[in-house]
Design goal:
13 helices; 2 domains; globular; Gfo/Idh/MocA_oxidoreduct; alpha/beta; about 375 residues; nine-stranded mixed β-sheet
């Protein structure tokens, strides 16, 4: 019998980008084997997709509840060990909560839930379950982001003076200006997406990333959000000022109506001695900037990088690694935790990241609604 971790998947069927990303990532280090799940609520599409990707259909279930029921009938040595939740946002909480209650380890897409209250409930459920829970803030898996985190922790740039993240996309621009599309896109539906679109979808990536690399906790926010049309209930653009617990200030600029932009995520941390900059569209370059010195460029795979960076590098220097590799490093970290192996706490985002992300979303919306005032997280 295979000694790989038995993985179940919820959602992510058809041409879902997230589905492809998770399936490929889970296979990269030969740690997981997909054994079943529910890829689509429509049975014909669900079973058809399983056939398409070559999965045995005996553990493809008609719905989530049936999956739990049938998996629990199996011996512990055969049932799913980890379940990945790749569904629309409103399903994250009920699925994750029930999985934890029944002893499963969980990998959940972000945002973790649709409200902070749900996130707190989930946190309590996890404490009782004592299983592994990861939230896929995917970009934390990049080797050079992990190098950035370690360099800041080692004092290479000195005391942090400013934190800055920009995340610009343009995909919703044609949607927002079309009445019919605007009314029928699930990310613009509060019942399915929660209280925020742009901040909930990509702003949380920026928030988690700044806390991850700087290891500073953001204490308060002041937000100004943009909805474009009065009948649109969900933000599609926003700017958030930040204050950390130790007084460092910063900013998050996010947009999904930045016309022509693809996935322009930039992270910048400035210290008293130097600055570090990373760009998601060129993820293999970490820029070290110092006054009076030439710009230095660090790349993955070299011996000058940190242990956690090298552990997440699969190829020799000069061979580009990308988003599949980044997600794979998160799956690798979860595998270590599930198998009881030693791992670095920076190897995958946890429940704490998910809870703080939900608090961030709600406080940003509150700040905007109250007239752009400072609100504590």
């Amino acid at each position: 019998m295979s000694n790989k971790i038995r993985l179940g998947i919820l959602g992510g069927g058809g041409d879902s980008l997230i589905g492809i990303l998770h399936r490929i990532a889970s296979s990269m280090y030969d740690k997981y084997e997909i054994v079943g799940g529910v890829f689509n609520p429509v049975w014909e599409e669900n079973i058809g997709f399983a056939n398409q990707i070559g999965l045995p259909t005996n553990r493809i279930y008609v719905d989530f509840d049936k999956m739990i029921e049938e998996e629990l009938k199996l011996p512990v040595s055969e049932r799913m060990q980890v379940v990945s939740i790749l569904t629309p946002n409103f399903l994250h909480f009920p699925m994750a909560n029930k999985l934890l209650e029944n002893g499963f380890n969980v990998i959940c897409e972000k945002p973790m839930t649709t409200s902070y209250d749900e996130a707190k409930i989930l946190q309590e459920t996890l404490k009782k379950a004592n299983t592994v829970f990861a939230v896929t803030y995917t970009y934390t898996g990049y080797p050079m982001i992990r190098q950035m985190r370690q360099m800041i922790a080692d004092g290479v740039i000195g005391n942090v003076q400013k934190i800055d993240a920009q995340y610009y996309q343009g995909w919703i621009n044609p949607v927002i200006h079309d009445d019919e599309l605007r009314a029928n896109t699930w990310r613009l539906d509060p019942e399915k997406g929660g209280i925020s679109c742009c901040i909930g979808d990509i702003g949380t990536h920026a928030f988690d990333m700044l806390e991850y690399v700087s290891q500073l906790r953001i204490k308060s926010v002041l937000a100004d959000l943009n909805f474009v049309y009065e009948d649109n209930q969900m933000d599609v653009d926003g700017t958030v000022l930040l204050r950390t617990e130790n007084g460092v200030k910063g900013v998050i600029c996010t947009s999904q109506i930045a016309t022509g932009e693809e996935n322009n995520f930039i992270v910048k941390i400035y210290g008293e001695k130097a600055g570090l900059k990373w760009e998601q569209e060129n993820p293999n370059y970490l820029y070290l900037m110092q006054d009076g010195e030439p710009l230095r460029v660090l790349k993955p795979g070299h011996s000058y990088n940190s242990e956690i960076s090298l552990d997440g590098t699969k190829l020799p220097p000069g061979h580009p690694e990308g988003i599949f590799d980044s997600m794979a490093n998160i799956y690798k970290g979860v595998a270590k935790a599930v198998n009881g192996e030693k791992y670095d706490h920076g190897e995958f985002p946890t429940m704490i990241d998910g809870v703080r992300g939900m608090s961030f979303i709600e406080k940003v919306v509150e700040s905007h609604q109250k007239g752009n005032i400072w609100v504590e997280i």
